[in-house]
Design brief:
The complex is a heterodimer of chains A (210) and B (235).
Chain A (H helix, E strand, L loop, with lengths): L5 H8 L15 H6 L4 H24 L9 H23 L1 H7 L1 H4 L5 H9 L6 H31 L1 E2 L2 E2 L3 H5 L11 H18 L8
Antiparallel strand pairs in A: 1-2
Chain B lengths: L5 H45 L9 H8 E7 L5 E2 L9 H5 L8 E7 L5 E10 L4 E8 L6 E8 L13 H4 L8 E2 L3 E2 L3 E3 L10 E3 L5 H16 L2 H6 L4
Parallel strand pairs in B: 9-10
Antiparallel strand pairs in B: 1-2, 1-3, 3-4, 4-5, 5-6, 7-8
The chains are: A mainly alpha (210), B alpha+beta (235).
Chain lengths: 210, 235
């Protein structure tokens, strides 16, 4: 079996488009609104979620045959929670400024529905390696949306990309002002809505009947 | 689906919890020194920023030992307290005590031209969470030399602007005493301060509650230093 068979590749690519956790399954919206005012925290948040989904999928899948079904949700929560605490501790130790910006949202990865959703829907019934790939795929699917939203919000809200000023001073002198609305969480919701709209106009099969 | 006995379920949970607890405490212990270091560096960077010295994470410790030449703790009467380390004073805990029992840290910066700047830490309540900062005074103990403010979760674009330069810069050169005896701190005025007002700066449009909170923080923290300021004025 090759490391990335076509079946496994599907696990990686599906969450990017047809099964995107944010725009199709509408999961993990709260953090998408909260951490996307700037690009850098959005990238770190995306990476953290990716790591947590991938590894908790791996761990849960590896012990799926030993988990008593009656307490499986609790077991999943314990695994996710400890992953998240580990990630939070690592961020605090090595990227302190970003961890301050993310503040409580790293802790809230625990409640990110994407992770529990993948554990229940996939890791409980599949082998560790495909589960890991599935976690990575969903993590990327989540990150991509976060990054797109954060890019637009930072560009129009602060005139910068990754903290570097890209809108030249001459624009401001000529009367250009940063769009304060972009910094508000409301605009993140509107942007996610626009992304969903664009995605569905390209993929007609995603449009719900009636 | 296999049928698991109750004994199995209990054993499973017990073993799992013990393993997880071990792993997490091990990680927390290993990473603690790095995390403490980050907090220390951040504090040093803030103190340096309040005496208008820019530092990076890399050179903060070095610059701090170069510019911050002295630090001590005073009480509310302005008397120096022996045996206390100003840097490790937990301001949050101190503010919970009655004024007369508080330990008030003072950091003395010596600038490139050998003039001194006196740094006082600040802490207060913002709209959504704590706000804090440092303010430095010139040797006359009246004129503001520099400020730095930060916050945990003020509204981005509104209250959060207190940590930006455009808000902090106007504090420089303001005076906290009127006629050298009456303490009035620096006011943060909604609708804008008059250009020639020596005791006020502009508030943030849309960030009124944070602006007011910042004003209250300056007033309540600095007033405890009043005896110290009056006794230590350098002409």
């Amino acid at each position: 079996m090759s490391i990335l068979s076509s079946k496994n590749f599907k696990l990686l690519s599906n969450p990017l488009n047809m099964e995107n956790p944010v725009t199709v399954q509408i999961l993990g919206i709260c953090s998408a609104l909260a951490v996307t005012t700037k690009l850098k925290p959005a990238i770190v948040m995306g990476l953290s979620v990716l790591v947590v989904t991938a590894f908790s999928n791996l761990v849960i899948s590896a012990m799926r045959n030993y988990i008593p079904p009656r307490i499986r949700i609790i077991v999943q929560l314990v695994v996710v929670a400890s992953m998240v605490i580990l990630v939070d501790q690592l961020l605090r130790a090595f990227v302190y400024d970003v961890s301050k910006q993310l503040s409580v949202y790293v802790g809230l990865i625990i409640t990110n529905c994407i992770i529990m959703g993948r554990l229940e829907a996939f890791a409980m019934g599949n082998k560790p390696w495909p589960s890991f790939i599935d976690g990575v795929g969903n993590g990327i699917g989540y990150s991509v949306i976060l990054i797109v939203v954060a890019f637009i919000r930072e560009l129009f809200g602060s005139g910068a990309v990754l903290g570097y000023q890209v809108v030249p001073q001459s624009f401001y002198d000529g009367g250009y002002v940063n769009n304060g609305m972009m910094i508000m969480p409301t605009m993140a919701l509107v942007l996610v809505g626009v992304i969903i709209w664009i995605q569905r106009s390209f993929n007609k099969e995603l449009i719900e009947k009636d | 689906m296999k049928n698991f006995s109750n004994t199995y379920i209990f054993t499973f949970s017990f073993v799992m919890v013990v393993i997880v607890a071990l792993l997490l405490s091990l990680a927390a212990m290993q990473l603690k020194p790095f995390q403490d270091k980050n907090i220390e560096v951040e504090k040093k960077q803030n103190i340096l920023a309040s005496i208008r010295i820019k530092s990076t994470v890399k050179d903060a410790v070095e610059l701090y030992s170069k510019y911050v030449t002295e630090s001590y703790v005073i009480n509310s009467k302005g008397e120096k307290q022996e045996g206390a380390d100003a840097f490790s004073v937990d301001l949050k805990a101190e503010l919970g005590k009655p004024v007369t029992e508080r330990m008030l840290p003072v950091f003395v910066g010596t600038l490139d031209d050998q003039t001194k700047a006196y740094v006082m830490p600040l802490r207060g309540k913002g709209l959504w969470g704590p706000i804090w900062g440092y303010i430095s005074l010139q040797p006359d103990m009246n004129t503001v030399y520099g400020t730095v403010f930060d916050h945990q979760g003020e509204t981005p674009g509104l209250g959060a602007e207190i940590s930006t330069e455009w808000f902090q810069k106007p504090f420089q050169g303001k005076t906290i005493f009127k006629d050298s005896t009456e303490f009035i701190s620096v006011k943060v005025l909604k609708g804008g301060a008059k250009d020639d007002d020596p005791h006020a700066v502009d508030a943030i449009s849309g960030g009124t509650i944070t602006s007011k909170a910042l004003e209250a923080m300056l007033d309540s923290c600095l007033v405890t230093y009043k005896p110290y300021f009056i006794q230590n004025r350098h002409k």
